[in-house]
From TrEMBL:
It is found in: Cell membrane. Residues 25-138 form the VTT domain. The keyword Manganese does not apply. Belongs to the DedA family. InterPro entries: DedA_domain, VTT_dom. The chain crosses the membrane at residues 23-46, 118-141, 153-171. Keywords: Cell membrane, Membrane, Transmembrane, Transmembrane helix. This is VTT domain-containing protein.
Length: 183
């Protein structure tokens, strides 16, 4: 499956950003924006709810024994009540981040956030996530495909640069956390 609309490639194989009807930066292979948006929304809804219910399952599995006693303490009960009250905004806002959504959704399930509250927050977050990834995400993918078709070496160099940046950030954070642990 190509992500780039075939109408953007001429007979010589050169990619062009043209004003072909149905083609645009927010389409994937000519599929209209709203179809891509609904697909992204459906995917994130399924993934997030699966994570929430996995958290509920873990909570059920740990409902007996020492850990259950810890969660029944007054301090833990107060913390859980705060999560039930203020957790829904955290669920919604987690969809505007990278890497935190899974933890928040798993925690919401694990702490048994009431499902109606969770569902409202989830739908709002999924709507935002789908909008971001359908617009910015498809623009980046289509831009990368256009770059790869017209300047493949530049795309490889860009990929290497991004990988180097990520590696540098990971190494720096690891070193910092190790230094903090020694202090």
């Amino acid at each position: 499956m190509t992500l780039l609309n075939p109408a953007l490639i001429d007979t010589a194989g050169t990619a062009h950003a043209s004003a072909t009807p149905g083609a645009g930066v927010f389409t994937i292979a000519g599929v209209p924006f709203w179809v891509v948006y609904l697909a992204a929304f459906g995917i994130v809804m399924i993934r997030a709810q699966a994570t929430y219910w996995a958290g509920r399952g873990v909570a059920r599995g740990l409902s007996q024994g020492r850990f259950a006693q810890l969660l029944a303490s007054p301090r833990a009960t107060a913390a859980i009540e705060r999560v039930h009250r203020w957790g829904p905004p955290a669920v919604t806002l987690s969809f505007l981040t990278v890497g935190i959504q899974t933890v928040i959704n798993l925690s919401a399930g694990y702490l048994r956030m009431p499902y109606p509250r969770y569902l409202v927050a989830l739908v709002l977050g999924c709507l935002a996530w789908a909008a971001i990834w359908t617009t910015v995400g498809s623009a980046v993918v289509n831009g990368a495909i256009l770059l790869g078709l017209s300047h493949p070496v530049a795309l490889v160099l860009l990929g290497v640069g991004v990988a180097a940046l990520v590696a540098w950030i990971v190494v720096r954070r690891t070193r910092r956390s190790l230094a903090d642990g020694e202090a």
